[in-house]
Write a structure and sequence with these properties.
With 140 residues, the chain is mainly α. It is 45% helix and 3% strand.
Amino acid sequence: MQCRTDPVGTACLKQAAIADHKVVAYVLSVVLYGDNEAEQYIRKVEGEGVAHGCKPEASRTNRECVRCREQAVDVVWEVLWRVDGMMDPVPVPSPEVGCKGSGCGVAEGWTSRYAVFCSNGYRIWHEYSRFFSRVSSFLN
């Protein structure tokens, strides 16, 4: 099996993401944060095909990311609930891509858990920070 020889450990995840497993695509987008490859996975999560990846700014949301983040955090919790103190907090870097306008990351409504983003880079940074802050919180 090819994925067992991948030195980075992402080959199996990439195979699952290619087979349309959205939660795995979400995990890859945050794990590969800072790599150009991360954008293709965040678009896959949100159902934005590469052919029409240039959506209007106001339509880049994180609706599916929120759902996938919850499932991914639950999986990490299930795997690591007995592990204590094995992981240091993950630092959240500043976004690599600056915000292109006001209102980026703002909730879509008064009580919405979802937000609208000006770019895929900023959307990935947002998900990276939310995912790793949740995972780090139950390991310390």
